[in-house]
């Protein structure tokens, strides 16, 4: 019953958000063009890195393209869901409109995380998948059910980790009011995820695995695609995703106790 | 005896607030070592509200009215005290409690800016588990009452402030709440829009027996809707009772406008030792204590040639203005 209610509400979120976005046609077209140019630019940048060498951190150009494909999908998800919603948390708290969210008989985290979508991000997701399919053919990867299941699982875990990190940072707004910079830093860390983890020094690898688990976000799904991921890595990504999600949820509920609402 | 739908006992709330000295030195000090002080914005307040009552909360800016409303609807945790709203602890924000209340803030909006209000209404209906058919019926009824049938299909950003406020009210009432918390709902509206909104709230209260807690700086909202008022001054409750009684208590005087036959009479009257409020050629307004109206009038009418006279209560705004700065009423 509850799930049906949430599905119904989410379908309304989708239709109202798309309708809102389509009110501004030019903006949507510009966003679509930006998405295409952004992918072309990234592939071009990657090709420059490989101009004088055949491999970086043990990955050749064709394999590195997989990381780029996963990064593009994640960036598309970021632009479609995280950016329009999670950056709004800061605005909700600063302006006190979080009041309306908290007074609805609905999970506040669900409402605040999924209320809006930016349809232009869909194109990035499609382009990312297109790039991945291209990589599957050039890397001669065999597709079977188990392979697809593992790919989707690790990709979902990556989305959960990225969302939880972003949501955790946004939640601190309840105390610090302005935390835009911190979410920008997170986005810039995500750019790092376009490159194989092995191409960084040991200390950076530790940092991007433990403190800001960008490594889990792009590298592990890419290794699964190439069939070189070890089981412990996949399991650790699952655990990290679960821990991050639970912590972000608990932290949100805890932070709400300190919400003082904006003055009228 | 009828039980209170809202019961507040010894309610207090403190906030940590940081202050900053002016200038660059102050800014740097504020950045590196922020000094915070705990300020008690609500101090040991007690009151109860019965079902169907319309209660006005009066107080100057920063007195604590909005904080009380936000505590009552569960947005802010109280620091101390007991409270119950419709049998619930508000700050737990349980689903059945949230379905029973609504909050309307004159200066904040929940409607989707780029879409017509009808889209927000259907979204709210789904959130409150209202079937589409029932939602349609409620939207029709409320839009008729609020006279916004045509505006339902126009993007919110293109509506006037008055139309937007009416739409906000509709969005807030679609789930038929039993308790309405209205924080300055007529803020910025023109006189006609204010009157229409007041008329709607009165009808809504009569039809549904909903309890309404209202704050407003427009005294007409308070005088035309609230029989009972609660006065708050610097976080303390200074009066809780009938508005009529409060006005009598605070202002035991009346203003009498005399229209004298000649300007000479008016001049002589003004020099007779009465409290003069206004004087304009042959017209003169005198403030007289209510218990001495008869004798004073007799004296003036015997002594001066008066063409006409009008007895008025002093403007409510003036009286309430006095209440807002009083520690005790």
Describe the overall structure.
The complex is a heterodimer of chains A (264) and B (329). Chain A is built from twelve helices and two strands. A two-stranded antiparallel sheet of chain A has the order 1-2. In chain A, helix 2 runs parallel beside helix 6, helix 3 runs antiparallel to helix 6 and helix 7 packs antiparallel against helix 11. Chain A has 264 residues and is mostly helical. The longest helix of chain A is centred in the first third of the chain and has 35 residues. Helix content of chain A is 78%, strand content 2%. Chain B is α/β, with parallel strands linked by helices and 329 residues long. Chain B has twelve helices and 13 strands. The longest helix of chain B has 18 residues. Chain B is globular, with a radius of gyration of 25 Å. Chains A and B meet through helix 1 and helix 4 of A and helix 3, strand 5 and helix 4 of B.
């Amino acid at each position: 019953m509850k799930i049906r209610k949430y599905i119904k509400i989410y379908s309304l979120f989708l239709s109202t958000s798309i309708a809102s976005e389509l009110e501004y046609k030019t903006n949507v077209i510009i966003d679509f063009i930006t998405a295409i140019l952004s992918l072309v630019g990234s592939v071009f940048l990657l090709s420059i890195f490989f101009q004088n060498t055949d491999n970086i951190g043990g990955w050749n150009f064709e394999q590195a393209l997989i990381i780029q494909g996963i990064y593009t999908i994640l960036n598309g998800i970021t632009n479609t869901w995280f950016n329009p919603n999670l950056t709004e948390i800061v605005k909700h708290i600063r302006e006190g409109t979080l009041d309306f969210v908290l007074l609805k008989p609905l999970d506040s985290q669900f409402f605040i995380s999924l209320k809006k979508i930016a349809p232009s991000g869909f194109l990035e997701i499609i382009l990312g998948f297109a790039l991945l399919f291209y990589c599957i053919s050039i890397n001669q990867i065999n597709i079977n059910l188990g392979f697809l299941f593992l790919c989707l699982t690790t990709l979902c875990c990556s989305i959960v980790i990225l969302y939880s990190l972003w949501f955790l940072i946004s939640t601190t707004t309840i105390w610090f009011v302005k935390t835009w910079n911190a979410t920008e830093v997170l986005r810039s860390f995500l750019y790092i995820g376009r490159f194989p983890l092995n191409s960084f020094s040991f200390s950076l690898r530790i940092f991007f695995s433990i403190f800001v688990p960008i490594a889990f976000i792009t590298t592990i799904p890419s290794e699964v695609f190439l069939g070189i991921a070890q089981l412990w890595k996949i399991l650790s990504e699952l655990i990290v995703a679960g821990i991050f999600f639970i912590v972000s949820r608990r932290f949100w509920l805890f932070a709400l106790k300190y919400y003082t609402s904006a003055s009228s | 005896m009828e039980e209170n739908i809202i019961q507040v006992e010894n309610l207090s709330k403190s906030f940590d607030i940081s202050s900053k000295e002016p200038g660059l030195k102050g800014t740097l000090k504020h950045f590196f070592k922020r000094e915070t002080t705990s300020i008690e914005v609500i101090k040991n307040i007690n009151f109860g509200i019965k079902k169907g009552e319309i209660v006005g909360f009066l107080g100057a800016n920063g007195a604590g009215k909005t904080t009380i409303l936000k505590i009552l609807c569960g947005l802010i945790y109280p620091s101390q005290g007991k409270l119950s709203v419709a049998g619930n602890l508000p700050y737990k924000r349980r689903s059945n409690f949230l379905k029973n209340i609504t909050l309307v803030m004159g200066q904040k909006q929940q409607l989707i800016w780029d879409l017509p209000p009808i889209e927000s209404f259907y979204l709210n209906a789904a959130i409150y588990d209202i079937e589409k058919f029932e939602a349609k019926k409620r939207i029709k009824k409320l839009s008729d009452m609020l006279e916004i049938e045509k505006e339902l299909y126009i993007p919110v950003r293109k509506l006037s402030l008055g139309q937007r406020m009416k739409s906000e009210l509709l969005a807030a009432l679609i789930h038929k709440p039993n308790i309405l918390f209205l924080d300055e709902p007529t803020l910025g509206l023109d006189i006609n829009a204010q009157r229409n909104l007041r008329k709607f709230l009165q009808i809504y209260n009569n039809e549904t027996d909903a309890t309404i807690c209202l704050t407003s700086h427009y005294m007409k909202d308070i005088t035309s809707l609230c029989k009972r008022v609660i006065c708050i001054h610097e976080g303390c409750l200074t009066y809780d009772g009938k508005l009529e009684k409060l006005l009598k208590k605070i202002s035991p005087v009346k203003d009498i406008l005399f229209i004298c036959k000649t300007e000479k009479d008016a001049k002589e009257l003004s020099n007779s030792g009465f409290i003069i409020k206004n004087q304009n050629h042959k017209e003169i307004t005198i403030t007289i204590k209510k218990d001495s109206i008869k004798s004073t009038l007799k004296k003036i009418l015997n002594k001066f040639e008066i063409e006409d006279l009008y007895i008025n209560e002093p403007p409510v705004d003036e009286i309430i203005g006095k209440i807002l700065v009083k520690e005790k009423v």
